[in-house]
Amino acid sequence: MRALLLAFSTAVMMGQVPTVQKVEGMQDVFRHGRVFVTGQPTEQDFRTFKAQGVTLAVNLRQASEMQTLPMNQASQEALIRELGMTYLWLPLREESSFEPSVVARLAEAMKAHPGPVLIYCATARRSSLLYVAYLVREGMAMPQAMDIGRHMKFDSSMNGLLERLLRADTKP
Predict the structure, then answer these.
(1) pLDDT at position 1 over 60
(2) What's the DSSP call for residue 113?
(3) Fold of 18-166
């Protein structure tokens, strides 16, 4: 473990690991490399993400939790498609929905869209969690991925859900 932490520290000092940036002028928007992680965007936010080059928007909210929003699931999807982005709906809410197949679907979509990607939910917690699971699935060491997540909205109370997302998952 000590060697792993030393290797990670060295990589950070050498600039090999992108840092998490809080996007100025937007609430709870974090950027790590080409990925934006955020809570629920507004219509204007979606337009801003498009202007930033986002080609894939991944919605983690269930339809039921979006019924009272100005834009429900269907209208969000329509706007995203109208803006020329691909929409992927991966609803995560109930514990049973936290499965390795969700991480695999995100990985497939991200591979197909090499440009900037937006992952969003209500508050950026589920978005951060899924992104951490994605990083681990793609080969990043768990401590490094969790550290990136902690600079977003991931915290230790989510460890059990992270384990569910990674359980028995092997990258093809």
Answers:
(1) no
(2) -
(3) Protein-Tyrosine Phosphatase; Chain A (3.90.190)
